[in-house]
Protein backbone atom coordinates (compact mmCIF):
# COMPACT_ATOMS: atom_id res chain seq x y z
CA UNK A 1 0.00 0.00 0.00
CA UNK A 2 0.75 3.67 -0.28
CA UNK A 3 2.39 3.46 -3.66
CA UNK A 4 2.88 7.24 -3.75
CA UNK A 5 5.05 7.20 -0.64
CA UNK A 6 7.17 4.32 -1.94
CA UNK A 7 7.40 6.00 -5.36
CA UNK A 8 8.76 9.19 -3.86
CA UNK A 9 11.50 7.36 -2.03
CA UNK A 10 13.57 6.29 -5.02
CA UNK A 11 11.91 7.30 -8.28
CA UNK A 12 12.70 10.22 -10.58
CA UNK A 13 9.97 10.74 -13.19
CA UNK A 14 10.34 11.97 -16.80
CA UNK A 15 9.58 15.61 -17.66
CA UNK A 16 8.93 16.33 -13.99
CA UNK A 17 10.25 19.04 -11.69
CA UNK A 18 9.60 17.12 -8.49
CA UNK A 19 9.74 20.15 -6.21
CA UNK A 20 6.66 21.75 -7.77
CA UNK A 21 4.81 18.82 -9.36
CA UNK A 22 1.78 17.11 -7.86
CA UNK A 23 2.16 13.50 -6.71
CA UNK A 24 2.07 10.82 -9.38
CA UNK A 25 -1.24 8.95 -9.62
CA UNK A 26 -0.85 5.23 -8.95
CA UNK A 27 -2.36 3.17 -11.79
CA UNK A 28 -3.06 -0.46 -11.01
CA UNK A 29 -4.63 -1.71 -14.23
CA UNK A 30 -5.45 -0.71 -17.82
CA UNK A 31 -7.98 -2.26 -20.17
CA UNK A 32 -9.26 -0.98 -23.51
CA UNK A 33 -9.42 2.81 -23.21
CA UNK A 34 -9.56 2.86 -19.41
CA UNK A 35 -6.82 3.46 -16.84
CA UNK A 36 -7.74 2.22 -13.34
CA UNK A 37 -6.23 4.07 -10.37
CA UNK A 38 -5.38 2.68 -6.95
CA UNK A 39 -8.04 4.81 -5.26
CA UNK A 40 -10.78 3.39 -7.48
CA UNK A 41 -10.90 6.30 -9.96
CA UNK A 42 -11.04 5.54 -13.66
CA UNK A 43 -9.69 7.64 -16.50
CA UNK A 44 -10.41 7.39 -20.22
CA UNK A 45 -6.99 7.38 -21.88
CA UNK A 46 -7.68 10.19 -24.35
CA UNK A 47 -4.09 10.23 -25.64
CA UNK A 48 -3.46 6.46 -25.81
CA UNK A 49 -0.63 6.79 -23.28
CA UNK A 50 1.43 9.01 -25.58
CA UNK A 51 0.03 7.52 -28.79
CA UNK A 52 1.20 3.97 -28.11
CA UNK A 53 -1.81 1.86 -27.06
CA UNK A 54 -3.76 2.46 -30.28
CA UNK A 55 -5.52 -0.94 -30.19
CA UNK A 56 -6.57 -0.48 -26.57
CA UNK A 57 -4.69 -1.39 -23.41
CA UNK A 58 -4.00 -5.04 -22.62
CA UNK A 59 -5.33 -6.11 -25.98
CA UNK A 60 -5.63 -9.89 -25.66
CA UNK A 61 -4.80 -10.64 -29.28
CA UNK A 62 -1.48 -8.82 -28.92
CA UNK A 63 -0.61 -9.96 -25.40
CA UNK A 64 -1.41 -13.57 -26.39
CA UNK A 65 1.07 -13.40 -29.26
CA UNK A 66 3.72 -11.85 -27.02
CA UNK A 67 3.16 -14.45 -24.29
CA UNK A 68 3.57 -17.27 -26.81
CA UNK A 69 6.76 -15.69 -28.18
CA UNK A 70 8.17 -15.32 -24.66
CA UNK A 71 7.93 -19.04 -24.12
CA UNK A 72 9.81 -19.86 -27.28
CA UNK A 73 12.60 -17.31 -27.74
CA UNK A 74 13.06 -14.43 -25.31
CA UNK A 75 16.21 -12.65 -26.39
CA UNK A 76 19.27 -13.30 -28.53
CA UNK A 77 22.10 -11.13 -29.80
CA UNK A 78 21.08 -9.66 -33.16
CA UNK A 79 24.65 -9.30 -34.46
CA UNK A 80 25.39 -12.66 -36.03
CA UNK A 81 21.98 -14.19 -35.24
CA UNK A 82 18.54 -13.72 -36.71
CA UNK A 83 15.06 -15.04 -35.92
CA UNK A 84 11.56 -15.48 -37.30
CA UNK A 85 9.88 -12.57 -35.41
CA UNK A 86 12.39 -10.05 -36.83
CA UNK A 87 12.21 -11.45 -40.36
CA UNK A 88 8.41 -11.67 -40.28
CA UNK A 89 8.15 -8.11 -38.95
CA UNK A 90 10.37 -6.84 -41.78
CA UNK A 91 8.15 -8.60 -44.34
CA UNK A 92 4.90 -7.30 -42.88
CA UNK A 93 6.16 -3.76 -42.34
CA UNK A 94 7.65 -3.43 -45.83
CA UNK A 95 4.19 -4.27 -47.22
CA UNK A 96 2.65 -1.18 -45.60
CA UNK A 97 5.58 1.28 -45.62
CA UNK A 98 6.04 3.74 -48.51
CA UNK A 99 7.25 1.71 -51.51
CA UNK A 100 10.86 2.89 -51.52
CA UNK A 101 11.65 1.60 -48.00
CA UNK A 102 13.80 -1.54 -48.17
CA UNK A 103 15.85 -2.02 -44.98
CA UNK A 104 15.02 -2.00 -41.27
CA UNK A 105 17.44 -1.09 -38.47
CA UNK A 106 16.22 -1.99 -34.98
CA UNK A 107 16.59 0.12 -31.84
CA UNK A 108 14.83 0.82 -28.56
CA UNK A 109 12.68 3.96 -28.68
CA UNK A 110 11.73 7.05 -30.66
CA UNK A 111 14.81 9.04 -29.68
CA UNK A 112 17.21 6.32 -30.81
CA UNK A 113 15.16 5.86 -34.01
CA UNK A 114 15.73 9.52 -34.93
CA UNK A 115 19.30 9.50 -33.60
CA UNK A 116 20.08 6.70 -36.06
CA UNK A 117 18.24 8.52 -38.85
CA UNK A 118 20.54 11.49 -38.27
CA UNK A 119 23.63 9.27 -38.14
CA UNK A 120 22.62 7.55 -41.38
CA UNK A 121 22.19 10.92 -43.10
CA UNK A 122 25.58 12.21 -41.89
CA UNK A 123 27.47 8.99 -42.66
CA UNK A 124 25.80 8.62 -46.06
CA UNK A 125 27.77 11.69 -47.18
CA UNK A 126 30.88 10.89 -45.15
CA UNK A 127 31.15 7.47 -46.80
CA UNK A 128 31.30 9.20 -50.17
CA UNK A 129 34.04 11.54 -49.05
CA UNK A 130 31.73 14.54 -48.79
CA UNK A 131 31.86 16.63 -45.64
CA UNK A 132 28.29 17.63 -45.02
CA UNK A 133 27.76 18.31 -41.32
CA UNK A 134 24.63 20.42 -41.07
CA UNK A 135 21.16 19.07 -40.38
CA UNK A 136 18.07 20.92 -41.51
CA UNK A 137 14.93 20.80 -39.34
CA UNK A 138 11.63 22.55 -38.79
CA UNK A 139 11.15 25.20 -36.15
CA UNK A 140 9.33 23.70 -33.16
CA UNK A 141 10.02 20.14 -34.23
CA UNK A 142 10.43 17.44 -31.62
CA UNK A 143 12.56 14.37 -32.25
CA UNK A 144 13.49 13.04 -28.81
CA UNK A 145 15.83 13.55 -25.89
CA UNK A 146 19.20 12.01 -26.83
CA UNK A 147 21.91 14.44 -28.02
CA UNK A 148 21.34 14.21 -31.76
CA UNK A 149 17.57 14.17 -31.34
CA UNK A 150 17.72 17.09 -28.91
CA UNK A 151 19.92 19.05 -31.31
CA UNK A 152 17.45 18.85 -34.18
CA UNK A 153 14.44 19.50 -31.91
CA UNK A 154 13.41 23.14 -32.12
CA UNK A 155 11.40 22.77 -28.95
CA UNK A 156 14.42 22.53 -26.69
CA UNK A 157 13.15 25.10 -24.21
CA UNK A 158 14.60 23.30 -21.22
CA UNK A 159 17.83 22.09 -22.85
CA UNK A 160 20.03 25.00 -21.81
CA UNK A 161 22.62 22.81 -20.10
CA UNK A 162 23.39 20.90 -23.28
CA UNK A 163 23.12 23.39 -26.11
CA UNK A 164 26.86 23.94 -26.43
CA UNK A 165 27.24 20.27 -27.28
CA UNK A 166 24.62 20.13 -30.02
CA UNK A 167 25.29 19.13 -33.62
CA UNK A 168 24.95 21.93 -36.15
CA UNK A 169 21.34 22.57 -37.16
CA UNK A 170 19.58 25.17 -39.27
CA UNK A 171 15.81 25.63 -39.32
CA UNK A 172 12.99 26.56 -41.62
CA UNK A 173 9.38 27.38 -40.69
CA UNK A 174 6.71 24.80 -41.50
CA UNK A 175 4.82 25.42 -44.78
CA UNK A 176 1.26 26.54 -44.05
CA UNK A 177 0.06 27.11 -47.61
CA UNK A 178 0.13 30.88 -47.56
CA UNK A 179 3.86 31.04 -46.71
CA UNK A 180 4.98 28.17 -48.97
CA UNK A 181 6.90 30.31 -51.44
CA UNK A 182 8.76 32.14 -48.66
CA UNK A 183 9.71 28.86 -47.01
CA UNK A 184 10.95 27.54 -50.35
CA UNK A 185 13.09 30.60 -51.08
CA UNK A 186 14.51 30.46 -47.56
CA UNK A 187 15.30 26.78 -48.10
CA UNK A 188 17.05 27.46 -51.40
CA UNK A 189 19.15 30.17 -49.83
CA UNK A 190 20.12 27.92 -46.92
CA UNK A 191 21.07 25.12 -49.30
CA UNK A 192 23.35 27.46 -51.24
CA UNK A 193 25.09 28.64 -48.06
CA UNK A 194 25.41 25.42 -46.03
CA UNK A 195 26.61 21.84 -46.45
CA UNK A 196 23.33 20.20 -45.50
CA UNK A 197 23.46 16.44 -44.97
CA UNK A 198 19.85 15.73 -44.13
CA UNK A 199 16.43 17.15 -43.40
CA UNK A 200 14.54 15.71 -40.42
CA UNK A 201 10.85 16.49 -40.05
CA UNK A 202 7.62 15.30 -38.50
CA UNK A 203 5.44 14.88 -41.60
CA UNK A 204 2.20 16.94 -41.52
CA UNK A 205 1.69 16.89 -37.73
CA UNK A 206 4.16 18.20 -35.14
CA UNK A 207 3.09 16.30 -32.05
CA UNK A 208 4.96 17.79 -29.12
CA UNK A 209 4.63 21.30 -30.60
CA UNK A 210 0.91 20.95 -29.88
CA UNK A 211 -0.43 18.79 -32.73
CA UNK A 212 0.43 21.61 -35.14
CA UNK A 213 -0.46 20.68 -38.70
CA UNK A 214 1.08 21.91 -41.93
CA UNK A 215 0.58 21.90 -45.66
CA UNK A 216 1.19 18.73 -47.68
CA UNK A 217 2.03 20.46 -50.99
CA UNK A 218 4.52 22.71 -49.24
CA UNK A 219 6.19 19.79 -47.51
CA UNK A 220 6.27 17.83 -50.75
CA UNK A 221 8.02 20.70 -52.50
CA UNK A 222 10.58 20.91 -49.68
CA UNK A 223 11.28 17.18 -49.99
CA UNK A 224 11.65 17.51 -53.77
CA UNK A 225 14.17 20.29 -53.48
CA UNK A 226 16.08 18.45 -50.75
CA UNK A 227 16.29 15.27 -52.80
CA UNK A 228 17.44 17.19 -55.88
CA UNK A 229 20.31 18.44 -53.73
CA UNK A 230 21.07 14.99 -52.30
CA UNK A 231 19.86 16.09 -48.85
CA UNK A 232 18.67 12.93 -47.10
CA UNK A 233 15.02 13.23 -46.05
CA UNK A 234 14.38 11.69 -42.63
CA UNK A 235 10.68 11.39 -41.79
CA UNK A 236 10.14 11.17 -38.05
CA UNK A 237 6.90 9.16 -37.98
CA UNK A 238 7.33 8.15 -34.34
CA UNK A 239 4.06 9.94 -33.52
CA UNK A 240 2.29 9.97 -36.92
CA UNK A 241 2.93 6.33 -37.86
CA UNK A 242 0.50 3.42 -37.84
CA UNK A 243 -2.85 4.78 -38.93
CA UNK A 244 -3.30 7.85 -36.74
CA UNK A 245 -3.43 10.26 -39.67
CA UNK A 246 -6.05 8.17 -41.47
CA UNK A 247 -3.39 6.54 -43.66
CA UNK A 248 -0.83 4.02 -42.48
CA UNK A 249 1.87 6.70 -42.47
CA UNK A 250 1.71 10.48 -42.82
CA UNK A 251 4.23 10.13 -45.66
CA UNK A 252 1.46 8.37 -47.62
CA UNK A 253 -0.12 11.82 -48.13
CA UNK A 254 2.99 12.96 -50.02
CA UNK A 255 4.11 12.07 -53.53
CA UNK A 256 7.80 12.39 -52.65
CA UNK A 257 8.91 9.60 -50.35
CA UNK A 258 11.44 9.99 -47.52
CA UNK A 259 14.84 8.27 -47.72
CA UNK A 260 14.62 7.28 -44.06
CA UNK A 261 11.65 6.73 -41.71
CA UNK A 262 11.80 6.65 -37.89
CA UNK A 263 9.22 4.56 -36.04
CA UNK A 264 8.35 3.75 -32.44
CA UNK A 265 5.39 4.46 -30.09
CA UNK A 266 2.45 2.58 -31.72
CA UNK A 267 4.91 0.25 -33.49
CA UNK A 268 4.58 -2.19 -30.57
CA UNK A 269 0.99 -1.25 -29.74
CA UNK A 270 1.87 0.08 -26.29
CA UNK A 271 3.17 -3.26 -25.05
CA UNK A 272 6.95 -3.12 -25.23
CA UNK A 273 9.59 -0.50 -26.01
CA UNK A 274 11.08 -0.70 -29.49
CA UNK A 275 12.14 1.63 -32.29
CA UNK A 276 12.94 1.15 -35.96
CA UNK A 277 14.79 3.22 -38.50
CA UNK A 278 13.96 2.15 -42.03
CA UNK A 279 15.64 3.29 -45.23
CA UNK A 280 15.71 3.04 -49.00
CA UNK A 281 18.14 0.89 -50.96
CA UNK A 282 20.15 4.01 -51.86
CA UNK A 283 20.96 4.66 -48.19
CA UNK A 284 21.79 1.02 -47.47
CA UNK A 285 24.06 0.83 -50.52
CA UNK A 286 26.11 3.79 -49.31
CA UNK A 287 27.14 1.68 -46.28
CA UNK A 288 27.58 -1.65 -48.11
CA UNK A 289 31.30 -1.99 -48.71
CA UNK A 290 34.40 -4.16 -48.24
CA UNK A 291 35.63 -1.61 -45.71
CA UNK A 292 34.28 -2.31 -42.24
CA UNK A 293 34.47 1.39 -41.37
CA UNK A 294 31.81 2.22 -43.97
CA UNK A 295 29.26 0.16 -42.05
CA UNK A 296 26.85 1.63 -39.53
CA UNK A 297 28.61 0.85 -36.27
CA UNK A 298 25.65 1.35 -34.04
CA UNK A 299 23.94 -1.35 -32.02
CA UNK A 300 21.57 -1.64 -29.09
CA UNK A 301 21.67 -4.69 -26.85
CA UNK A 302 17.95 -5.35 -27.17
CA UNK A 303 17.88 -4.90 -30.99
CA UNK A 304 14.98 -6.90 -32.49
CA UNK A 305 13.90 -8.28 -29.10
CA UNK A 306 11.64 -11.19 -30.16
CA UNK A 307 8.62 -10.44 -27.88
CA UNK A 308 8.71 -6.79 -29.02
CA UNK A 309 8.77 -7.98 -32.66
CA UNK A 310 5.81 -10.26 -31.90
CA UNK A 311 3.87 -7.30 -30.48
CA UNK A 312 4.67 -5.26 -33.61
CA UNK A 313 3.58 -8.05 -35.98
CA UNK A 314 0.29 -8.47 -34.09
CA UNK A 315 -0.21 -4.69 -34.11
CA UNK A 316 0.24 -4.52 -37.91
CA UNK A 317 -2.23 -7.37 -38.33
CA UNK A 318 -4.80 -5.38 -36.39
CA UNK A 319 -3.98 -2.12 -38.18
CA UNK A 320 -4.68 -3.57 -41.63
CA UNK A 321 -7.81 -5.43 -40.45
CA UNK A 322 -11.21 -4.28 -41.68
CA UNK A 323 -12.39 -3.93 -38.09
CA UNK A 324 -9.70 -1.43 -37.07
CA UNK A 325 -9.98 0.44 -40.38
CA UNK A 326 -13.72 0.79 -39.70
CA UNK A 327 -13.00 2.01 -36.17
CA UNK A 328 -10.62 4.60 -37.59
CA UNK A 329 -13.30 5.87 -39.98
CA UNK A 330 -15.80 5.99 -37.12
CA UNK A 331 -13.49 8.04 -34.88
CA UNK A 332 -12.70 10.43 -37.75
CA UNK A 333 -16.44 11.06 -38.34
CA UNK A 334 -17.11 11.43 -34.65
CA UNK A 335 -14.38 14.08 -34.27
CA UNK A 336 -15.81 15.92 -37.30
CA UNK A 337 -19.23 16.07 -35.63
CA UNK A 338 -17.66 17.32 -32.38
CA UNK A 339 -15.76 19.96 -34.32
CA UNK A 340 -19.06 21.24 -35.76
CA UNK A 341 -20.39 21.59 -32.23
CA UNK A 342 -17.57 23.67 -30.79
CA UNK A 343 -16.46 25.60 -33.86
CA UNK A 344 -18.30 28.80 -32.96
CA UNK A 345 -17.24 28.93 -29.34
CA UNK A 346 -15.49 32.30 -28.78
CA UNK A 347 -12.58 30.71 -26.92
CA UNK A 348 -11.93 28.01 -29.55
CA UNK A 349 -9.43 28.71 -32.32
CA UNK A 350 -7.13 26.91 -34.78
CA UNK A 351 -9.28 23.79 -34.95
CA UNK A 352 -7.54 21.04 -36.85
CA UNK A 353 -7.88 17.36 -37.60
CA UNK A 354 -5.95 14.73 -39.49
CA UNK A 355 -7.29 11.21 -39.16
CA UNK A 356 -8.03 10.42 -35.53
CA UNK A 357 -5.89 13.35 -34.32
CA UNK A 358 -8.13 16.24 -33.29
CA UNK A 359 -6.85 19.48 -31.75
CA UNK A 360 -7.80 23.06 -31.10
CA UNK A 361 -6.32 25.98 -29.22
CA UNK A 362 -7.86 27.97 -26.42
CA UNK A 363 -7.81 31.63 -27.18
CA UNK A 364 -5.74 32.55 -24.13
CA UNK A 365 -2.03 32.88 -23.51
CA UNK A 366 -0.70 29.94 -21.52
CA UNK A 367 2.71 28.63 -20.56
CA UNK A 368 3.51 25.12 -21.68
CA UNK A 369 3.48 23.83 -18.12
CA UNK A 370 1.94 26.91 -16.51
CA UNK A 371 -0.85 27.35 -13.96
CA UNK A 372 -3.84 27.69 -16.26
CA UNK A 373 -2.66 24.70 -18.27
CA UNK A 374 -2.46 22.72 -15.02
CA UNK A 375 -6.02 23.76 -14.14
CA UNK A 376 -7.28 22.44 -17.46
CA UNK A 377 -5.44 19.19 -16.86
CA UNK A 378 -6.99 18.95 -13.40
CA UNK A 379 -10.46 19.59 -14.78
CA UNK A 380 -10.08 16.68 -17.19
CA UNK A 381 -8.68 14.33 -14.57
CA UNK A 382 -11.31 15.29 -11.97
CA UNK A 383 -13.88 14.28 -14.56
CA UNK A 384 -12.30 10.94 -15.41
CA UNK A 385 -10.64 11.88 -18.69
CA UNK A 386 -6.88 11.75 -19.23
CA UNK A 387 -6.06 14.52 -21.68
CA UNK A 388 -2.73 16.30 -21.49
CA UNK A 389 -3.03 19.88 -22.75
CA UNK A 390 0.11 21.21 -24.44
CA UNK A 391 0.10 24.84 -23.34
CA UNK A 392 -3.18 26.19 -24.69
CA UNK A 393 -3.69 23.25 -27.07
CA UNK A 394 -6.27 20.61 -26.25
CA UNK A 395 -5.94 17.46 -28.32
CA UNK A 396 -7.56 14.07 -28.50
CA UNK A 397 -5.72 10.99 -29.75
CA UNK A 398 -7.71 8.12 -28.24
CA UNK A 399 -7.19 4.44 -29.12
CA UNK A 400 -8.75 3.32 -32.43
CA UNK A 401 -10.86 0.97 -30.31
CA UNK A 402 -12.41 3.75 -28.20
CA UNK A 403 -16.20 3.36 -27.85
CA UNK A 404 -18.69 6.05 -28.86
CA UNK A 405 -19.73 6.38 -25.19
CA UNK A 406 -16.13 7.01 -24.20
CA UNK A 407 -15.66 9.54 -27.01
CA UNK A 408 -18.87 11.30 -25.99
CA UNK A 409 -17.59 11.56 -22.43
CA UNK A 410 -14.31 13.10 -23.65
CA UNK A 411 -16.26 15.62 -25.76
CA UNK A 412 -18.62 16.39 -22.90
CA UNK A 413 -15.78 17.12 -20.48
CA UNK A 414 -14.18 19.46 -23.04
CA UNK A 415 -17.48 21.29 -23.65
CA UNK A 416 -17.97 21.55 -19.92
CA UNK A 417 -14.53 23.13 -19.64
CA UNK A 418 -15.31 25.62 -22.40
CA UNK A 419 -18.59 26.61 -20.77
CA UNK A 420 -17.65 26.71 -17.11
CA UNK A 421 -13.99 27.65 -17.03
CA UNK A 422 -13.33 30.00 -19.86
C1 LIG B 1 7.83 10.74 -28.78
C2 LIG B 1 8.58 11.18 -29.97
C3 LIG B 1 9.96 10.96 -30.09
C4 LIG B 1 10.78 10.34 -28.99
O1 LIG B 1 10.38 9.05 -28.70
P1 LIG B 1 10.80 8.39 -27.30
O2 LIG B 1 10.36 6.97 -27.43
O3 LIG B 1 10.03 9.14 -26.26
O4 LIG B 1 12.26 8.54 -27.14
C5 LIG B 1 10.58 11.33 -31.26
N1 LIG B 1 9.88 11.91 -32.26
C6 LIG B 1 8.57 12.16 -32.18
C7 LIG B 1 7.86 12.79 -33.32
C8 LIG B 1 7.86 11.81 -31.03
O5 LIG B 1 6.55 12.07 -30.95
Keywords, separated by commas or semicolons:
422 residues, alpha/beta, Aspartate Aminotransferase, domain 1, binds pyridoxal-5'-phosphate
User: What does the overall shape look like?
Assistant: globular
Which H/E pattern describes the elements? HEEEHHHEHEHEHEEEHEEEHHHEEHEEH
Detail the poorly predicted runs: none
Distance between the termini: 38 Å
Question: How large is the radius of gyration?
Answer: 22 Å
Number of strands: 16
Number of separate structural domains: 2
At CATH level 2, the architecture of the largest domain is 3-Layer(aba) Sandwich
* Major beta sheet, strand line-up: 4-12-11-10-7-5-6
Residue share in helix: 25-40%
Description:
The protein has 422 residues and is an alpha/beta fold. The protein folds into two domains: 258 residues, Aspartate Aminotransferase, domain 2 (3-Layer(aba) Sandwich); 91 residues, Aspartate Aminotransferase, domain 1 (Alpha-Beta Complex). 37% of the residues lie in helices and 17% in strands. It is built from 13 helices and 16 strands. The strands form four sheets. Strands 4-12-11-10-7-5-6 form a seven-stranded mixed beta sheet, sandwiched between helices. A hairpin with a 2-residue loop joins strand 13 and strand 14. Helix 4 packs parallel to helix 10, helix 7 packs parallel to helix 8 and helix 11 packs parallel to helix 13. The radius of gyration is 22 Å and the shape is globular. The two termini are 38 Å apart. Bound molecules: pyridoxal-5'-phosphate (PLP). The site of pyridoxal-5'-phosphate (PLP) has 14 residues, from helix 5.
Amino acid sequence: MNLVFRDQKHLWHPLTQHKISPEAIPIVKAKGSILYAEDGSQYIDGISSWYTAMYGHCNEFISGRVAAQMQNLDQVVFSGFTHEPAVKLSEELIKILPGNQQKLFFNDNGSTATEIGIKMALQYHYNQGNRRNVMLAFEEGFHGDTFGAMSVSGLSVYNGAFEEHFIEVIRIPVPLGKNNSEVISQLEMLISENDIAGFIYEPLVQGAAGMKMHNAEGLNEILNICQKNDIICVADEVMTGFGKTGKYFASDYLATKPDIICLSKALTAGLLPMGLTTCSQKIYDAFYDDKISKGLFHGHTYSANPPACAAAIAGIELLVSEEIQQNIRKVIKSHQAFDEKIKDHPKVTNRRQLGVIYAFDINLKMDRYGNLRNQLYKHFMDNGVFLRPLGNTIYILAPFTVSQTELDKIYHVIEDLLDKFL
